[in-house]
């Protein structure tokens, strides 16, 4: 049995218990609040709350960042181009690109950051400075509806990969009614975020019905399956695997 580190767990989540993303952070007036769910040098996942008229001033990051708005609406300025995003829409900001966020209303969003952080890298701004795609298969600096990144296929499960790394993957999946994946076990924790329809999530012997806006963590090493049993179902799947211990490296 491999020796695991504890860094890969999704902070703020109880494995095997469904919760709405909005419930992960309590809203406070005039504040911006964040919860770091995954915190690694090369990958991170955060959820944010912005009160109305709050925001983040112009920032430049060394990583590709996928922002997913879960509620409210906001103005994103990416490389001096303004775009309005509302619930269910997303924006991929490339590494080295200046961007800012302003909340028109109370705003909640998910932030997935992937790439190699290097001091002094990408400080001049501009699109595609690094020449690398840390997050793939989605146009950068454009507004997308997350659930529309992939369509349903009759009697099949379709998927599109946004991040594929040894220890961290992000995938959008579309399951036709009566189809699904599993049962199987994974060496890392896996978060399912329901984007459309309803999905049956079986973890061990316990069945959960996941609805749009809800999420659940399927713990490492416990058999699980996901099916669109009652309805067609679209979801985002984020898998974070344990890093090797110093003895294994």
Structural commentary:
The protein has 249 residues and is mostly beta strands. Helix content is 0%, strand content 49%. The chain is built from no helices and 19 strands. The protein has strands at residues 19-20, 32-39, 43-50, 55-59, 64-71, 73-78, 81-86, 89-93, 99-103, 107-114, 143-145, 157-164, 168-175, 180-184, 189-203, 206-211, 214-218, 224-227, 233-240. The strands form three sheets. Strands 1, 12, 13, 14, 15, 16, 17, 18 and 19 form a nine-stranded antiparallel β-sheet that branches. A six-stranded antiparallel β-sheet has the order 2-3-10-5-8-11, with no helix packed on it. A four-stranded antiparallel β-sheet has the order 4-9-6-7, with no helix packed on it. A hairpin with a 3-residue loop joins strand 12 and strand 13 (168-175). The relative contact order is 0.19.
Which key phrases capture this entry?
nine-stranded antiparallel beta sheet, disordered N terminus, 249 residues, mainly beta, six-stranded antiparallel beta sheet, 19 strands
- Number of extended strands: 19
Radius of gyration over C-alpha positions, nearest whole angstrom: 18 Å
**Percent in helix:** under 10%
Gap between N and C termini, in Å? Answer: 15 Å
Strand-residue proportion: over 45%
Overall pLDDT confidence: 89
Element string (H = helix, E = strand): EEEEEEEEEEEEEEEEEEE
Low-confidence stretches: 1-7, 119-130
Number of helices: 0
Shape descriptor reads: globular
Largest sheet: 9 strands, antiparallel
**Structural category:** mainly beta
